[in-house]
Design a protein that fits this description.
CATH topology of the largest domain: Rossmann fold
Structural class: alpha/beta
Shape: elongated
Number of domains: 2
Distance between the termini: 13 Å
Number of helices: 15
Strand content: 15-25%
Order of helices and strands: EHEHEHEHEHEHEHEHEHEHEHEHEHHH
Largest sheet: 7 strands, parallel
Radius of gyration: 21 Å
Strand order of the largest sheet: 3-2-1-4-5-6-7
CATH superfamily of the largest domain: Glycogen Phosphorylase B
Number of strands: 13
């Protein structure tokens, strides 16, 4: 079986990282996997050891109708049995049209839980033979918008549990890197700086937390349009000595195991790769009960869940965990076990391959 994967993301995190996991795990005799991605995208180099071929083509986003012609040309050249569309940014719509015009079965991965108008769902999703939701929360959103139950299947995203594992290997490096004194606690947040991730909610919750645990540092990892506004809010609140914007890091596997708690107060979330990574590192989590988050963060098992937008509840949950090293340890151990059982790369690859087999047989 030959599958053409289309990923329009330019940075190697989130969905693009999942595509690399998938390509690596799907290498097996008799199968061939080819990737199409934007020119200069980070996924290109990461995927080359695992894909039969990587095609870097022009992808300009939702308004790029020319993507239809470029993808049709690529489909004709590669002659895949299945086209798998992994992202939005135009590749979902234009890729679906291109595959349909070439008569090739097409699968769409849905990674976000934001609602779409019901009329648009009814029109757009006719393009796809199957939709793979990366969480049950996303699947339920699609079902509520009228998508037929037999057309959408949940296959959870995965985490590399060998790379992300418990144990802070170099405490001295961590303290020096981020200015943490011995005995101080750390709360991390790893997310794009966009409104729905909840950075403002975390800043609202922090004064009450710092009143109880004044020697706590908060490290914000990521990039995005909200980064500068968040920096200004930190300064306006007088929190610059306690809250540090650290930008995008490629070494989170080294950083996460050294955190005491991960905070993820997102108002909307498909599943949350950072949550999987933190759980794999045995880090307890405080997050919002939104989207697919409760599938990774089990309240009272490996973390605490609060209502989206409820800053006082977030303060209380963070304070509770920072106050008890034994609870943090118990939650961390349970999180590692949960990830090993439910979110392995092998299980994710098997689920996707089963969908390819189904749509190919039905074609």
């Amino acid at each position: 079986m030959k599958v053409l994967h289309v990923e329009a993301g330019k940075h190697l995190y989130g969905g693009a990282l999942q595509v690399v996991f998938l390509l690596e795990a799907l290498r097996r005799p008799g199968d061939e996997h080819v990737l199409a991605c934007p020119r200069g995208a980070a996924i290109a180099d990461a995927a080359r050891p695992h894909a039969a071929r990587v095609h870097e083509i022009e992808m300009k986003g939702d308004a790029d109708i020319g993507m239809v012609g470029r993808l049709r040309q690529l489909i004709r050249a590669e002659r895949p049995d299945v086209v798998h569309l992994h992202s939005r940014r135009g590749s979902d719509l234009w890729g679906g049209i291109a595959a349909r015009l070439e008569g090739v079965p097409v699968v769409l991965s849905r990674r976000v839980d934001n609602p779409e108008p019901r009329w648009w769902v009814g029109l757009k999703y006719r393009l796809y033979d199957r939709v793979i939701a990366i969480s049950e929360g996303i699947r339920q959103v699609l079902l509520s918008e009228g998508l037929a139950a037999d057309k959408v299947v949940c296959v959870h995203s995965a985490v590399d549990t060998q790379r992300y594992r418990p144990g802070c290997d170099d405490v001295e490096w961590f303290r020096a890197e981020f200015g943490i004194a011995e005995g101080e606690l750390t709360v991390g947040m790893a997310a794009q700086f966009i409104p729905r991730k909840g950075h403002r909610m975390l800043l609202e919750a922090l004064p009450a937390v710092l009143a109880v645990h004044p020697n706590t540092h908060v490290l914000l990892f990521g990039q995005g349009p909200e980064q500068e506004p968040v920096k200004r809010l930190i300064q306006a609140a007088g929190l610059e000595n306690r809250v540090h914007v650290e930008g995008f890091r490629r070494d989170l596997d080294r950083v996460l195991p050294c955190l005491d708690v991960l905070a993820h107060p997102a108002e909307m979330e498909g599943l949350g790769v950072a949550l999987l990574q933190a759980a794999a590192c045995a880090v307890p989590i405080v997050a919002c009960r939104a989207g697919g988050i409760p599938e990774v963060v089990r309240h009272g098992l490996n973390g605490e869940l609060v209502a989206p937008g409820d800053a006082p509840a977030l303060s209380e949950a963070l304070t509770k965990l920072l106050s008890s090293s034994s609870l943090r340890r118990a939650y961390g151990d349970a999180g590692r076990t949960l990830v090993l059982e439910r979110f392995s790369i092998g299980a994710m690859a098997a689920g996707n391959h089963a969908v390819y087999t189904t749509v190919r047989k039905a074609a």
